[in-house]
């Protein structure tokens, strides 16, 4: 075999990616499911072995049957859509306000000195401590719920945007001075693109916080269509299958939000040099 042939084969081996073995791909996707599947198996075992009272721990097939019945008549689907609509409206309002204020604080030392101590105090107050005040100001209806969800999304969006803009290296600012960039050019060309990873991290967290707050608002404020209202129904009527079904749905939607947000963040930040 000639030297040219050997060099060509070596170059080909470096240029063509080697696909991982199929079992490695399968294990990569199944590994995160190992713990949930194990917990479901333990749940089913305890329910059928008579160790746990079926009134408190109904078998998994009873929960599945309740889910089929609920989605079949459209009741639970309507409540799920109501919760999602409430969540996305609050998330949009809170994240937009958080990003806007975070940019303002990050770009202005004066605003940072004025609002920094207030925001530090605000971070120490538990989210659910605002429920009585929100219910007094906005009522326990739809407006109060959306405000509560927006407040949950506001904090991570604000903090991460603020840190992202404040963390722009000094060398970038000096480069902007050398290029005689104005404030708008510096913000649009250098600062905001440089802060995008932190901003997306804040939006990712805000999405999860907003979904958690959606359930809290529906449980603590006035009863309205939503998963929280159906959980209240399951608690008061002692329908454990309905209560557990709602909990599983909440976890499933949270996982979907997390996966979608992570995929969007990865795709939108592909331009970054690792």
Automatic annotation (TrEMBL):
One of its GO terms (biological process) is transmembrane transport. It holds the Pfam family BPD_transp_1. It comes from the Bacteria. Residues 80-261 form the ABC transmembrane type-1 domain. Keywords: Cell membrane, Membrane, Transmembrane, Transmembrane helix, Transport. It is found in: Cell membrane. It is a multi-pass membrane protein. Its main location: membrane. GO terms for cellular component: plasma membrane. The chain crosses the membrane at residues 88-108, 120-140, 146-163, 175-196, 202-221, 242-264. SUPFAM superfamilies: MetI-like. InterPro entries: MetI-like, MetI-like_sf. Belongs to the binding-protein-dependent transport system permease family. This is ABC transmembrane type-1 domain-containing protein. The lineage of its organism: Bacteria, Pseudomonadati, Pseudomonadota, Alphaproteobacteria, Hyphomicrobiales.
């Amino acid at each position: 075999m000639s030297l040219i042939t050997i060099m060509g084969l070596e170059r080909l081996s470096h240029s063509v990616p080697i696909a991982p073995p199929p079992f490695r791909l399968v294990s990569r996707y199944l590994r995160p499911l190992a713990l949930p599947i194990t917990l479901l198996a333990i749940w089913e075992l305890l329910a059928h072995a008579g160790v746990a009272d079926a009134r408190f721990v109904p078998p998994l097939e009873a929960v599945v049957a309740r889910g089929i019945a609920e989605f079949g008549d459209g009741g639970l689907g309507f409540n799920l859509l109501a919760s999602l609509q409430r969540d996305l409206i609050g998330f949009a309002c809170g994240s937009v306000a958080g990003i806007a204020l975070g940019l303002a604080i990050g770009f202005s030392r004066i605003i940072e000195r004025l609002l920094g101590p207030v925001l530090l105090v605000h971070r120490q107050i538990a989210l659910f401590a605002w429920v009585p005040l929100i219910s007094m100001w906005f009522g326990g209806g739809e407006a109060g719920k959306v405000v509560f969800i927006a407040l949950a999304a506001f904090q991570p969006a604000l903090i991460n945007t603020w840190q992202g803009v404040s963390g722009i290296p000094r060398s970038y600012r000096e480069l902007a001075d050398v290029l005689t960039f104005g404030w708008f050019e510096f913000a649009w060309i250098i600062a905001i693109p440089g802060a995008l990873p932190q901003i997306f991290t804040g939006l990712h967290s805000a999405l999860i916080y907003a979904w958690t707050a959606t359930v809290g608002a529906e449980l603590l404020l006035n009863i309205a269509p939503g998963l929280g209202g159906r959980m209240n129904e399951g608690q008061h009527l002692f329908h454990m299958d309905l209560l557990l079904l709602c909990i599983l749905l909440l976890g499933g939607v949270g996982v979907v939000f997390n996966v979608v947000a992570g995929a969007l963040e990865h795709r939108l930040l592909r331009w970054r040099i690792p």
